[in-house]
Write a sequence for this structure.
């Protein structure tokens, strides 16, 4: 333990699996106190109790980030359990991929409610406390979809572009209050969502191989590698980083095409 996050009290959304769980484990190793939320109550309880059993200081609550009232209550619960929050990691998200003219209203609403409105609900609930205590940090987990477009993934890139816009807007708005708001943009990450994507093809093995070929290094990121970047961005090691986005994709988004 390097104790890079001693004194940090961090709320993490979508913390029961994948990148969110990896981030929770990483920040706990750095001596942060954590409040984990996820809509999957059963999975959240199992993972959080494992971490509590290892001696970490954390609380958790099942919650729907699209419900602003519920999130306000959760933030109050977090303050009561681990103390005044000084950091938020908006990780919760959902893939909604379709063709533009085939996208239903339900798909559109689900995409924006979770990927954008949910993140805003959490920011809105946490920001007053950050301002009152003289500063803090917010990290939005975006995606390379926030600045690139992959055909047949509509409307997901729209929501992630908007999340990046919100990051920049809030970062500028509250810079004078010593609140930093940044984004982290992973590319492909070896989470269950990506595995499910491969399994949606007739030949999952070939689909996985094609994904790997897209990357200059011939592989995709692990959740733990994304978590390492999150630790840096939420820490005091980058105090002048604000209203910007760090890309962690192994070079995928800057490669025009593979050889």
């Amino acid at each position: 333990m390097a104790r890079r996050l001693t004194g940090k009290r961090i709320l993490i959304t979508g913390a029961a699996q994948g990148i969110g769980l990896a981030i929770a484990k990483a920040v706990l190793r750095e001596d942060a106190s954590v409040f984990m939320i996820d809509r999957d109550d059963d999975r959240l309880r199992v993972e959080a109790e494992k971490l509590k059993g290892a001696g970490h200081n954390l609380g958790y609550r099942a919650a729907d980030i699209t419900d602003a009232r519920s999130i306000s209550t959760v933030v109050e619960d977090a303050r009561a359990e681990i103390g005044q929050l000084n950091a938020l990691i908006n990780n919760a998200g959902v893939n909604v991929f379709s063709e533009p003219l085939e996208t239903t209203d339900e798909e559109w609403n689900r995409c924006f409610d979770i990927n954008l409105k949910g993140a805003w609900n959490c920011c809105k609930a946490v920001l007053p406390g950050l301002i009152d205590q003289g500063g803090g940090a917010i990290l939005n987990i975006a995606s390379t979809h926030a600045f690139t477009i992959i055909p047949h993934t509509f409307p997901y890139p729209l929501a992630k572009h908007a999340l990046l816009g919100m990051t920049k807007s809030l970062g500028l708005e509250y810079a004078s209050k010593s609140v930093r708001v940044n984004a982290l943009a992973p590319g492909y990450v070896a989470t269950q969502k990506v595995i499910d994507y491969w399994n949606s093809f007739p030949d999952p093995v070939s689909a996985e191989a094609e994904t790997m070929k897209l990357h200059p290094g011939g592989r995709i990121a692990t959740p733990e590698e994304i978590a390492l970047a999150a630790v840096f961005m939420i820490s005091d090691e980058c105090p002048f980083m604000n209203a910007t986005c760090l890309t962690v994709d192994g070079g995928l988004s800057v490669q025009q095409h593979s050889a």
